[in-house]
TrEMBL record:
Source species, domain of life: Bacteria
Entry's Gene Ontology molecular function annotations: ABC-type oligopeptide transporter activity; ATP binding; ATP hydrolysis activity
Pfam families: ABC_membrane, ABC_tran
Regions annotated as coiled coil: none
InterPro entries noted in UniProt: AAA+_ATPase, ABC1_TM_dom, ABC1_TM_sf, ABC_transporter-like_ATP-bd, ABC_transporter-like_CS, P-loop_NTPase, Type_1_exporter
Broad class of where this protein is predominantly found: membrane
Membrane topology category: Multi-pass membrane protein
The protein, known as: ABC transporter, ATP-binding protein
Domain ABC transporter span(s) in chain numbering: 329-565
This protein's UniProt keywords: ATP-binding, Cell membrane, Membrane, Nucleotide-binding, Transmembrane, Transmembrane helix, Transport
Signal peptide: none
Length: 579
């Protein structure tokens, strides 16, 4: 946890001001009962002096003002630290490999950034000032009390310590409850994030009741934990009140007897009663700090685990990835299995993707097509074998530059929050003029519908692009590729969810985009891939056939059956177009 706090780079100057203000606040709290003692003892001397009253007021007001300044400065430090920590955590999450996000839902990761950092914020902004002032006030009060009267001090400490001996075990029950509550909040955050992201699926399958039951079950568990925490807190409050009451009664009874015997003055007894609060409150603050510390420690363990995860490999001394066509991408005896799974997804894949050609990956769902694309994008590393570009392992190329030379058009054509312009230029470095963005949109066949939007390129797209049709999202994704100008173009089921007319329009845009590039197409519709120079047929993670449409139709029975099933009749091979 302290490693995380240091990562937030707390201000030394602000920390110094907070510490000095805390010392001044403690001094005021210690001085106030002493001045009150002198004020009361003055009654025996013939009345109250104005100067003594002003000293009491100064101790009270000055201590309160210094305490407020200390609390504000520590809060400022805390919020700055947590802001830095959250920013660093977001940056770290963005640098993690895709495989890291296979372990935990996105909602749980969001909870780490928001809720767990909030627990650390609570410790720094509120509980740290209680720790600093509590320790100083407790130590100072005990010293002053011992100077005033040792027997009465020992009596006071004995009664308070006895009460806290009962309170502390109860307070520590909050530790386990708070950790379980944080884990449950992260879990329900993950569930709700997924539900709301897929709300159309939920409603399309009338699964509202099912999702409500699942969510309510988690909410009920969270409620039960909250009630347990409330019961512990409720148990602490009367114990605290009883401790205060018993301490006051004991001091009053014993102190009154000492006053009657002439051993101490009434002012001294009054000071002792005031000091009770200076002893009990810091002990309560230290108990709360301990509980919050355990809570923050649990949160920091989860956050630190993210910081300790290995980032995507970056090689700063590697040769820059080429930005012009001409490289041969080769899979050489590549096998792959996802972490934690026994099943091998790819087995001994040998493939060549030559410049200026189109290669189609065909096969049943689960045959390994998308995994090949993920390996090309370096979302994962092969379990064995090599992926080479121009004879060099692709891992030797700087990751950002490698991915910068790849264009990816996915089936869902995801849209990010922001304007149409932001989405067309998404992820690209540098500034682009309106003319460049409009040119890319026009080449993708998207300019007409963009100009019909209320603010044109500045129209804000809502979550997941739900104010666009599927074809419009695809054409914006294609416009992004025109602006990106990649060497290697990947089309992952890019037209599978479109109607015939929209598919035709998108296909025209794709044909323009594919010219002169190395293209890799994944599709279930064979009409999309029959013109590819090379078709690779995958079965259970292995290549069972490679060739053009005519060659596979003649040599691959499974491929021939798929062709006949999709077209309802045998399809003759058509001549290939160059490029």
């Amino acid at each position: 946890m302290w490693r995380l706090i240091r990562r937030g780079r707390p201000s030394v100057a602000a920390s110094s001001v907070a510490l000095l203000a805390a010392l001044a606040s403690v001094a005021g709290s210690l001085w106030f009962p002493i001045q009150t003692k002198h004020l009361i003892d003055r009654f025996d001397g013939g009345g109250i002096e104005l100067q003594q009253v002003l000293l009491v007021a100064a101790a009270l007001v000055g201590g309160a003002a210094a305490g407020a300044l200390s609390a504000y400065m520590l809060a400022r430090i805390g919020y700055q630290v947590v802001a830095e920590l959250r920013a660093a955590l977001v940056e770290k999450l963005l640098r993690l490999p895709v495989a890291s996000f296979d372990k935990e839902s996105s909602g749980e990761r969001v909870s780490r950034v928001i809720r767990d950092c909030e627990a650390i914020s609570e410790l720094i902004t509120k509980q740290t000032v209680n720790l600093v002032t509590g320790v100083l006030l407790l130590a100072g009060s005990i010293v002053v009390l011992l100077l005033l009267d040792v027997p009465l001090t020992l009596t006071l400490l004995g009664s308070v310590v006895a009460a806290f001996a009962v309170m502390i075990p109860i307070a520590f029950l909050l530790d386990g409850l708070s950790r379980r509550t944080q884990d449950r909040v992260a879990r329900i955050s993950g569930i709700l994030t997924h539900i709301f992201q897929e709300i159309r699926l939920v409603k399309a399958f009338t699964a509202e009741a099912q999702e409500r039951r699942r969510s309510v079950a988690e909410i009920e568990d969270l409620k039960r934990l909250g009630l347990k925490t409330a019961r512990v807190n409720v148990a602490l409050e009367p114990v605290m009140s009883l401790a205060m009451t018993m301490a006051i009664i004991i001091i009053l009874v014993y102190g009154a007897a000492r006053v009657a015997a002439g051993e101490i003055s009434v002012g001294t007894l009054t000071a002792f009663i005031l000091y009770i609060f200076n002893v009990v409150n810091p002990l309560a603050q230290l108990t709360n700090f301990t509980a919050e510390l355990q809570k923050a420690k649990g949160a920091s363990v989860r956050i630190a685990a993210i910081f300790d995860e290995a980032e995507e490999e970056k090689k700063t001394t590697a040769q820059p990835a080429p930005h012009s066509p001409g490289g041969v991408l080769e899979f050489r005896d590549v096998s792959f299995a996802y972490a934690g799974r026994d099943t091998t997804v790819l087995n001994g894949i040998d493939l060549l993707f030559e410049p200026g050609t189109t290669t189609a990956l065909v096969g049943a769902s689960g045959s390994g097509k998308t995994t090949i694309l993920s390996l090309i994008e370096r979302f994962y590393e092969p379990s064995s074998g090599q992926i080479l570009y121009d004879g060099r392992p692709i891992a030797d190329y700087p990751l950002q530059q490698w991915r910068g030379g790849i264009g990816y058009v996915a089936q869902s054509a995801p849209v990010m929050p922001g304007s149409v312009r932001d989405n067309i230029a998404y992820g690209l470095s540098g500034e682009f003029t309106d003319a460049q963005v409009r040119s890319a949109a026009e080449r993708a066949g998207a300019l007409d519908f963009i100009e019909r939007m209320p603010q044109g390129l500045d129209t804000v797209l809502i979550e997941q692009g739900n104010n666009l049709s599927g074809g419009q999202r695809q054409r914006i994704a294609i416009a992004r590729m025109f602006l990106r100008d990649p060497d290697l173009l990947i089309l992952d089921e890019a037209t599978s969810n479109l109607d015939s007319e929209t598919e035709h329009q998108v296909r025209l845009a794709l044909e323009a985009l594919m010219r002169g590039r190395t293209n890799i197409i994944v599709a279930h519709r064979l009409s999309t891939v029959i013109h590819a120079q090379r078709i690779c047929f995958l079965e259970a993670g292995r290549i069972s056939g490679i060739g053009n449409h005519g060659e596979l139709l003649a040599s691959h029975p499974y491929y021939a059956r798929l062709v006949q099933r999709q077209f309802q009749q045998p399809v003759e091979a058509e001549p290939m177009e160059a490029g």
